[in-house]
Design a protein that fits this description.
This protein is α+β, with helices and mostly antiparallel strands and 82 residues long. Helix content is 17%, strand content 34%. The chain is built from 1 helix and 5 strands, in the order E-E-E-H-E-E. A 5-stranded mixed sheet has the order 2-3-1-5-4, with helices on one face. This is UPF0235 protein ACHFJ0_21730.
């Protein structure tokens, strides 16, 4: 698991690219961009919930502190740390 705790500042906005139906769950930093791979399907918010869980774990914060600002139905998402 990638350690992103340095990004966990209140008010910070974190842009991620999500790949649903991946072979494994992972958070990876590639070329300065954060990519989140989840194994669940993107229906009924299941993939978004999995992304929040993985990203919060990588940031070392509670899931309730992550707010999805933009991209609920997109692969490109923007989260804010509250």
């Amino acid at each position: 698991m990638t350690d992103l705790s340095h990004l966990a500042q209140p008010g910070a906005e974190i842009a991620v690219r999500v790949t649903p139906r991946a072979s494994r769950n992972a958070v990876i930093v590639e070329e300065g961009a954060i990519r989140v791979y989840v194994t669940v399907v993107p229906e009924d918010g299941k993939a978004n919930a999995a992304v929040v869980k993985l990203l919060a774990k990588a940031l070392g914060i509670a899931r309730s502190r992550l707010v999805l600002v933009r991209g609920a139905t997109s692969r490109d998402k923007l989260f804010r740390v509250d």
